[in-house]
Write a structure and sequence with these properties.
It is built from 15 helices and 19 strands. It has three domains: about 120 residues, Rossmann fold; about 230 residues, Alpha-Beta Horseshoe (pyruvate-formate lyase- activating enzyme); about 55 residues, Nucleic acid-binding proteins (OB fold (Dihydrolipoamide Acetyltransferase, E2P)). The strands form five sheets. It has a six-stranded parallel sheet, sandwiched between helices. Strands 15-16-17-19-18 form a five-stranded mixed beta barrel. It is an alpha/beta fold.
Length: about 425
């Protein structure tokens, strides 16, 4: 490419909110821009197109969207601003009132962004019912060294608090053959770790007619894929067969994300969750029987309508005694159209904030203790980036590890002996053979 071509090359920037699934989808859309001659630049830089991939899980989406649009306008006054994804799907009318938006695309329509960009219309809105499966995977236009491969979308559950089935539609999934093809492509690009993502990947078999275990077996047979993780797995879908396949693969990492939401059985019933507190405990024990060193992450909602102090303490005490170390705490958000939004006794915002703070403090204390207990042990780390002279990457337990090195360690896996835990960071030294 000559200098004039480089100067005239169009630029696109991305900002992605929400889950790993959103990030995998942004990756695929970014690659589409690259294939069409665009350069992907950091959000906040001047660009011809700014793509905002939104989330609608919490009621902060509105203000987040407005702030991002304002930042995009300041950084790139002439850019076409695209607001896409779950929030766009659910709240297109609100977004239409926000100044500066050129294109609003729902969860399925966002993949057709290239069909709409050339239009001279001041504002386009394309919201369609989410029924197609649109594949997505991390691509070379991303900076991550872990690849996120979307294998499932949508959800057939009717949890009382959740807006996602309305935003993303019913459960659907990729076939094993197509997933394997995507995984081979990611391996050829140099990715060593794949994270299988979806809204509810435990529904994979009912959505695709094929077994999740068969998909896992196919991917771990790829020699260049050295590490595998699953995204969030509902507790009622975690099976002995799946755990056995993950263990026998030799590539699955020691971290499981299993949503809890609450440890009060009465709250779980109102939420329409498919398990009890004791069921959840048995699932973590089952996982431990296959992965004795496993670390656990969990989503927890506090301030669900009617949640008493006693019910909140049930959750607090359960978390304190559980093996969960990676807390993801959310205050309950009233989402229009959900059953929980119609319940009486909505909890005051100040109470929710206090409960969030309490659980976050417990979570940090548990993560600190777990991390400190890793000191003296050896772990393999996939290094991602160099920050302030330290190379950083993640261990099997999904703990960030820092090492000093004069060599370029990006996208490399090395054994590291963990030396100390200071200021919330694990520090180690690479073991040289």
């Amino acid at each position: 490419m000559n200098t004039d071509q480089a100067l005239n090359k169009k630029k696109v920037s991305f900002h992605t909110l929400g889950c790993r699934l959103n990030f995998s989808e942004s990756g695929s859309i970014a690659q589409g821009f690259v294939d069409r001659g665009y350069e992907v630049v950091e959000f906040g830089e001047n660009a011809d197109v700014v793509f905002l991939n939104t989330c609608t899980v919490t009621d902060g989406a509105d203000s987040s969207c407005r702030n991002l649009i304002r930042k995009a306008q300041n950084a790139a006054p002439e850019a076409k601003i695209v607001v896409a994804g779950c929030y766009a799907q659910m709240e297109a009318e609100k977004i239409k009132q926000m100044q500066g938006v050129d294109l609003i695309l729902g969860t399925s329509e966002k993949y057709k962004v290239f069909d709409y960009l050339e239009s001279e219309d001041d504002l386009q809105v394309h919201i369609d019912k989410s029924s197609d499966f649109n594949g997505a995977a991390t691509t070379l236009s991303d900076s991550h060294t872990r690849a996120f491969l979307k294998i499932q979308d949508g959800c057939n559950y009717v949890c009382s608090f959740c807006i996602i089935p309305f935003a993303r539609g019913r459960s659907r999934a990729i076939s094993v053959d197509v997933a394997l093809k995507e995984a081979k492509s990611l391996a050829s690009q140099g990715f060593k770790e794949i994270v299988l993502t979806g809204v509810n990947i435990g529904e994979y078999e009912s959505a695709s007619g094929e077994k999740l275990t068969d998909l896992v077996k196919a991917i771990v047979e790829l020699p260049d894929i050295q590490r595998l993780r699953l995204g969030s797995v509902e507790p009622n879908t975690m099976t002995k067969e799946l755990l056995e396949v993950l263990r026998d693969s030799g590539k699955y990492q020691n971290h499981f994300h299993i949503p809890l939401q609450s440890a009060s059985d009465s709250i779980l019933t109102s939420m329409r969750r498919k398990y009890t507190k004791d069921d959840y405990k048995k699932i973590t024990e089952l996982v431990k029987s296959y992965f004795p060193e496993a670390a656990f992450g969990a989503d927890v909602i506090v301030g669900y309508p009617g949640e008493t102090e006693e019910q909140f303490l049930e959750t607090f005490n359960f978390l304190r005694s559980s093996p969960i170390t990676h807390f993801h705490i959310f205050p309950y958000s009233k989402r229009k159209g959900t059953t929980a939004a119609r319940l009486e006794d909505q909890i005051q915002s100040s109470v929710k904030k206090d409960r969030v703070k309490t659980l976050m403090m417990l979570g940090q204390a548990k993560l600190d203790e777990f991390s400190f207990n890793q000191v003296g042990k050896t772990t393999e780390v996939l290094f991602e980036s160099c920050v302030d002279g330290y190379w950083e990457g993640y261990s099997s337990h999904y703990l960030k590890v820092k090492v000093k090195s004069d060599f370029d360690l990006k996208n490399s896996i090395y054994p590291v002996i963990l030396k100390n835990y200071v200021g919330g960071n694990l520090y180690g030294e690479i073991i040289v053979h």
